[in-house]
Amino acid sequence: MRAALILAVARLRAAPGRAALAGLGILAAGAMTGTAITIAVSLSGGFDRAADRADLPDVTARFRERGPAELDQRIRALPNLASRSYRLEVTDVPLSGGGRSTRSGAVEVLLGGRRGYAVVDGRDLRPREGEVLVERGLADTWGLGVGDLLRIGVLGPQRIVGITVEPSNVAFPLARAAHVYLPREPVQRRFGRLPANVALLWTNDRRHLDETLVQARALSYGVRDLRLITREGVQVLVGQAAGIVIALLGAFALVTLAAAGLMLGSAASAEVQRRLPTIGVQRAVGLSRRRVAAVHALEAALLALPAAAIGLGAGATLTGPRTEQLLRTLNELPPGASLPAWLVAGGAGLVAIVALASAWPAWRAAGRAPARVLRGGDLAPAREGKRRFGGRARAARDLSPRTAERRGDGLAHAARVPRAARRGGLLALGARLAAAHRARLAATVAVLAASAATALLLLSLASLLERLAQDPALLGRRYQLTVALPPEAAPAVRAIPGVAAAAPRRIAEGSDAFALGQPLRLIAYPGDHTVFEAPPLASGRRRAGPREAEVGLGLAEVLGLRVGGTLAVALASGGELRYRVVGVVRALDNDGRVAYVGERGLVAAGLGGSPNLAVRLTPGADRAAVGRALRRLGARPRPAGGASTSNARFLGVLADVLRAVAAVTAVMCLYALAQALALVARERRATVAVLRSFGSGAGAVLRVYAGAALIALVPAALVGFAVERILLAPGVARLAASYADLPLSAGVREAAVVGGALTLVGALAAGWMAAQTIREPIVAGLRGE
Amino acid sequence: MWAKDARPTVWAVSVVVARGLVKRFGDGRSARRVLDGVDLDVAAGELVAVVGPSGSGKSTLLHLIGALDRADGGSIEVAGRRVDGRPERELTRLRREHIGFVFQFFHLVPELTGEENVLLPARANGGGAAASRRARRLIEELGLGEAARRRPPELSGGEQQRLALARALVNEPAIVLADEPTGNLDARAGHSVLDLLRAVPDERRGALLVTHDPAATAIADRVVRMVDGRLES
């Protein structure tokens, strides 16, 4: 072992440049892995971490204000109840501080018991006058910290004593309301005895939560506007803000890990290929096959360890802050100590892959006759090409023995040159030189194709994000504008030139009557809803009768609904609506947890009041003219939005994450290609030197390397595009949102960007290699082959 | 032109003029003076052979004259153009326009056919139809029609070296530099190559040959001997 270690260290020291190049590749793969692990670990457990630390209740009940004593009498009787606490939530309270203000403050007055939030800076409240806790989103956005003053409506300035995270909703400003927390005593002194409108319930056993919920509904007689939401339901609600996006990022992390593994494997294999003569010498001087493999594994591990560590660190550093920002926006917590543990495990995995990928081809090579290995032939047995006129025998006839031996490698390679590549100038020559090692070329193409496909996926993802936020058609919406006008104004709006249809869009939030923790959204139009919203049908038919519903695939999956089943909706008022499911639609809105129902039933239940009018324009209508006409009716038209992720800051953070990951992918591409060209350059030093001896300058050498780059890049681009379109995009879209058809395939713009990037990568790699070659004396090159 | 017994006249025009060439390898105390004040002229129509023991500096001299390496002292002119002290770009053009090389190990590109190998210098330097015609004429004159259609791994050593000679001539250089052109061939193949080499010099072209082969020295117009970095006539 010690001897192997000494040999491995000596070889690394003997060729520091080459070791640095190989290390750079491992570093790039490490960066990709670090990025993927950081994203995956951070996003996958963000809610659970925050919920655990915040001691988030199992059930949150909201209702019309009640006296705490009378309320507690009922709640105490619930089965499986471990503990409970109450709050008074006052909304639309003016807040100001740090030079900013909002009229959408939500003041949570704590009426005792467990808190349900985590204090991440400062301390918790004491029953004193003048103390307030603020949610982290508000503190971040307004630049507030512990010790600063926050003015709260009529209560005036309060001293901030702590910053909180409560993952019951996304953070301000992604959520409209900014949450602040006050102790009961000072508020009670000022306003008298305080009622409660929020109850936080913790159960003994979450598995029996349904029984508690059923009992809660039974005991809710007289309690108005009751809404129950479970911890699981909160997770769904929070996830709605960025559900598809986060799921796509998670799926992307998996793809990235696979690409990094592929790249490491092929790079390590190519490195051993380059060292075949050395392996031959080792075998010739008596090293055992196992020792040869061990030396290679050890050497690779020695190189991989620091390179992978730096790469993982760089990937985590590059994406860590942006991912943390994303988590902060979602009111979730970073992974803390578990992330380094995952990164260490990832690093160990990388080192193991590199060591194994080096040891395996070395083991195979060492199993062959040393003389054959010394000639440096390919690992796979070279197929003999058809030889005309007794080719090889004739060639050997008049050569001196030394020359005949030198020619061995060239013979094997030349026999495997594709016929198609036998014409053309220096570009074609470069292509032929690179194609001489088909296995290596295939590995390079595979790495580049995986990178191209990944980059395409990233760009498609970014493009999809923009469209999700801005393009209502993506959600199946066929109306372009909404206006805050009463339903009676619909005929007047329809009369405006350029307006094809206008109708009130009624929305009501509810939850499934059987699984009370599952929130859903009811959407209703008078008459045919497909005039305004027509997400594609996955099964069944469009609704026709008043008691029929089309449900989103997301809702159908969660509740196990099928065509012919019954959707029972528990309303906040305590009532219930029942519908027969006649169709399942691929809706993106609200993570597919929607149901299109009849308007009359909703209105009769007192729901969906104060709807906005949805306005569908005729094709080619003058939006400005329609807008002016709507303003004359007394309403300001608003463009129909996309998904709920329309917050610009949030999307900016996501775009940053994607860009960081794309940058790592581009570096990986550059490395893979540069390494492939370096191998060609090394093997064909003499060929290039001969070219230079004829008077070919840097331009000619550049064309040769450009040809070698093109033969890898062109098929890689084609394969990459195909893989993205056929495998990755549908696969990732399915992973991210099984409830909808996500148009994730790359478009012309993405293809052009990736094509341009590959061209740039090719130019850089070929230029770098040409510059390296030109620096070398021609005589040295002539002696080198 | 390529008749075996043709012995062209030596013209007075010098295609190579080297004066006081010095070349050192290594630094400090380990430095070795491989060329120590070498003077050499090669005239148009002349075939000059340089002989000497291994390590005497023969190949180094060829590399300096061929602008493949730089001298530490002295001056070189090839086809009336200075080689020493010129920037790499000028040396590249000089090699392209005035110098042809024949190497001991042929250095044909195994992926290309014989004809493509011959054409390579012309194509690499932007040669068009004229270069192609020249290459075909050379192939024809050297009797390499069959070999030109095949790739080097399918050719004999003699055929490869003859193709290499055609490749050296395709850009119509003023001087052909041959480094041990028969060093890896058996006697018969060596003779066929030497026959062709003998016919290279003409009124505008000379040839300089580095060799250990007595047969090669026999065809030379002039033989110079390199001993310890100096030339002896």
Dominant shape of chain B: globular
Q: How many helices of chain B does DSSP assign? A: 8
H/E order of the elements of chain B?
EEEHEEHEHHHHEHEHEE
Unreliable runs of chain A = 376-396, 401-423, 643-647
Q: Calculate Rg of chain B over CA atoms.
A: 17 Å
- Provide the residue-averaged pLDDT of chain B: 86
Instruction: Decide which structural class fits the backbone of chain B.
Output: alpha/beta
The total of beta strands of chain A comes to 20
Q: How far apart are the first and last residues' alpha carbons of chain A, in Å? A: 34 Å
The largest pleated sheet of chain B is described as:
6 strands, mixed
Indicate the structural class of chain A: alpha+beta
Largest interface: A-B, 48 and 45 residues
Share of helix of chain B, binned: 25-40%
The outline of chain A comes out as elongated
The counted number of beta strands of chain B is 10
Please state how the strands of the largest beta sheet of chain A are arranged side by side: 2-3-8-5-7-6
Describe the oligomeric state of these chains in a short phrase.
heterodimer
The helix content of chain A is 40-55%
Total of helices of chain A: 26
Give me the Rg of chain A, rounded. 33 Å
Task: Characterize the structure shown.
- The complex is a heterodimer of chains A (785) and B (233).
- With 785 residues, chain A is an alpha+beta fold.
- In chain A, strands 2-3-8-5-7-6 form a 6-stranded mixed beta barrel. Chain A has a 6-stranded mixed beta barrel with strand order 12-13-18-15-17-16.
- Chain A is elongated, with a radius of gyration of 33 Å.
- Mean pLDDT of chain A is 78; it is low at 376-396, 401-423 and 643-647.
- In chain B, strand 1 (14-25) and strand 2 (32-43) form a beta hairpin.
- With 233 residues, chain B is of the alpha/beta class.
- The longest helix of chain B is centred in the middle third of the chain and has 13 residues, at 129-141.
- Chain B has 8 helices and 10 strands.
- Chain B has helices at residues 58-65, 88-98, 114-124, 129-141, 145-148, 157-169, 187-198, 214-219; strands spanning 14-25, 32-43, 47-51, 73-78, 81-82, 99-102, 175-179, 206-210, 222-227, 230-232.
- The chains are: A alpha+beta (785), B alpha/beta (233).
- At the A-B interface, helix 13, helix 14, helix 15, helix 16 and helix 23 of A face helix 2, helix 3 and helix 6 of B.
